[in-house]
Amino acid sequence: VGDEGEHLELTAVTKEESGSYECIASNDISSPDIRTVQVTVNYPPFISKARSTGTPVGQKGVLQCEASAVPRADFEWYKEDRRLFNGLNGVKIENQGKQSMLVFFNVSEEDYGNYTCVAMNTMGMTNASIILYGKNKMLVNCVRNYCNLIFKWKAFTLCMLAAVQRKKKKSPTLCYAVLYLFISAIH
């Protein structure tokens, strides 16, 4: 507050100083006079959320980008150096407040790669790299098949061990039949 008590000077203002400020003038004669001033600090975009996402081929995929800025940021999306537009190439761009989403309705192999989210306002611009990658179904299937192979081998081994332990001559065909039933049950 100045020497005459009539002004407040804010220097090196940051976005944290945004908000309502009250000035109260009072004396012994009348009730206090209160005035409120809203201070808005403009600042360039700062991307606070940009997460890469894994999505299998044929599924819906979403890349999200969130930016804090005053005035509010506008968003653009790029794949490599090519700007993406809403509704083209099976993608939709949805902007909601400080968040932008790039939505793929049916992810294909060609969709995988590096995307750039650009956030801009009158104060400046920034960008973030976000990757759409595939969830490797092949790896999951291989792991599952490996597990199935272990279960199948254990079932066959148990069948053969049972035959040996009873010292009876069980036919391998019976063990394969047990194995077939076991395989059918786990699929």
Automatic annotation (TrEMBL):
Q: Which residues form the Ig-like domain?
A: 44-131
SUPFAM superfamilies linked to this entry: Immunoglobulin
What compartments host this protein?
A: Cell membrane
Q: Which PROSITE patterns match?
A: IG_LIKE
Q: Sorted alphabetically, which InterPro entries does this protein's record hold? A: Ig-like_dom, Ig-like_dom_sf, Ig-like_fold, Ig_sub, Ig_sub2, IgLON_domain
Q: Where are the transmembrane segments?
A: none
Protein family according to the UniProt entry: Belongs to the immunoglobulin superfamily. IgLON family.
Q: Organism, per UniProt?
A: Seriola lalandi dorsalis
Q: Name one GO cellular component term.
A: side of membrane
Protein name according to UniProt: Opioid binding protein/cell adhesion molecule-like
**What's the chief localization of this chain?**
membrane
Biological process annotations from GO: cell adhesion
Q: Which UniProt keywords apply?
A: Cell membrane, Disulfide bond, Glycoprotein, Lipoprotein, Membrane, Repeat, Signal
